[in-house]
Amino acid sequence: MKFSHFYILPLLFASIFSLSWATSSHEDFLHCLSLRSNDSSSISKVIYTPNNSSYSSVLESTIRNLRFSTPNTPKPLVIVTPLSTSYIQATIYCSRNHGLQIRTRSGGHDFEGLSYVSEVPFVVIDLVNFRSVDVDVENRVAWVQSGAVLGELYYRIAEKSRTLAFPAGTCHTVGTGGYFTGGGYGLLFRKYGLAADNIIDAQLIDVNGRILDRKSMGEDLFWAIRGGGGGSFGIVLAWKLNLVSIPTTVTVFTVSRTLEQNAIKLIHRWQYIAHELPDEIYSSVSLIRANSSQDGKKTVLASFNSLFLGGLDELVPLMQKRFPELGLVKEDCIEMSWIESILYFGQIQNESLEILLDRNFRSPITSPYYKAKSDYVKEPIPEIGLRGLWSRFSEEEAESAVIGFFAYGGIMDEIPETANPFPHRAGNLYKILYNVGWQEEDNINSERYISWARRVYSYMSSFVSKSPREAYINYRDLDIGTNNKGNTSYAQASIWGRKYFKNNFERLVRVKTMIDPENFFRHEQSIPPLVSSRKKIAH
Length: 539
What we know:
Layout: H1 9-13, H2 20-36, H3 40-44, E1 47-48, H4 55-60, E2 78-80, H5 85-97, E3 101-105, E4 122-126, E5 133-136, E6 141-145, H6 150-160, E7 164-165, H7 176-181, H8 189-192, E8 199-205, E9 211-212, H9 214-217, H10 219-225, E10 235-242, E11 244-245, E12 250-258, H11 263-273, E13 281-291, E14 298-308, H12 312-322, E15 333-336, H13 338-345, E16 369-377, H14 383-392, E17 402-407, E18 430-438, H15 446-459, H16 490-501, H17 504-515, H18 531-538
Parallel strand pairs: 2-4, 3-4
Antiparallel strand pairs: 1-2, 5-6, 6-10, 7-11, 8-9, 8-10, 12-14, 12-15, 13-14, 13-17, 16-18, 17-18
Helix pairs in contact: 2-5, 11-14
């Protein structure tokens, strides 16, 4: 059911909200939107409230972690799916005036659901209609709107060129808007750096409704939005990307070994080798529980995954020289195009390239319910430490757990920590992702699985970075610290902020204080402004 006249909305929705203050804010917000719009009937078509038959389907369309899709999960009072920037400007204005928070969603992959969940009354701006991709092959650039998913970006680039790409991730349903704000690593990051390292312009709407590009926002704000996390500085509408060169043929391989096949010794050796491999090689190891081929008992399977920017005739002798223990042979390798490698690493290699345009696709890699955490490793973990990690997979909760090691090195060692807010550069051997998943029927036991992830994280504390124990913001983890619902001190936010950003956190706070001193754009891990500055503005 759609509404064309907003003056009747207060009557329709009064019964939904039992608390008078919530009802009033909600009604006033909708009325404000109708007044701020040049065409009330048009804007009504992109507004969804709990009274609307499409509300649930729109809300659930890109909820990627069903931990945050339960009857008890707080829901937005209104979802806006804007068709133009004026709708976003109106939503910001009316939310500010009527005491509602905004959560902005591009792909819905926030690991803690912060793009569509809040503990206080809130509105979701869903950028599903902001997803154009404009590729300029001649100038090797592309403009992509924040609602586009990575698959749409990759597909549009591949349509026009087999020798250009963009260094981003392998999960094609991830929204570009959120992904870029966290830095964004992928198959090309050892060669070309992060996605954020290859962004050369942007369009942002600030708290006052101004539309700013790189020149008008200034270098400090442009620095902050490329890796400083989403939901702190405004709403980024679009990004200008520098496209990078790739060969027409790349080579991939996956070599798997169990505990009985010396997997621990191989991983121990991998730690010394992977970060020093040529920049053209992406290297990772994934650990899962599996059945032993010997006796059917449970074991741990380690899969060594790589992409090489070149042919197998060059890759195989290189790996045999650098990592002979792995025993790589030509038969392990597959040559393909760059765009096909995205399907390969997404474990959808049997699908056509058009699958990249399906933003509602549910990945076979991740469980519907999950909890994730991250770490950075600066010194090789001894074999005894790896054996202790291995033993955690024998626990019942680890049935659908995945632990990933992602080799650093390459150009990541050369880009300064301060180039953008993402600080995890030189000195890191690899990053770790811990992910434990479960199915709907077991969601009643979700705390057991979450506890497993926390126990593994605790066990790993002596083997990973310290002071701070670093974390990757795109693997958001509220366990490492959160803000208050109201004002949050610099000291409190520093607890989690320095883990994500190290010393860059201080500059992020200064930028926040400059662009959004009253802290309108905020959530559990948003950058806070300096409190003293807010007090000055209030007087």
